[in-house]
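Hi everyone, sorry if this is the wrong subforum. Our group has a chain we'd like a structural model of before ordering constructs, and none of us has done structure prediction before. Sequence below.
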Amino acid sequence: MEKISETLAALALKKNVNIHEVDYQVLKEQLLKDDQVLSY
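Answer:
Right subforum, don't worry. Here is the predicted structure as tokens:
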């Protein structure tokens, strides 16, 4: 979970938006690139 939070924060900073405004699809794609498990 820590990696997900870090990725979310980094994307928000990069886009200069609130974490709640980060597009889920963008987050999902980045997490998959980082080999994160999104569901069991």
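For your construct planning: The chain has a mean pLDDT of 93. The first helix runs from residue 2 to 15.
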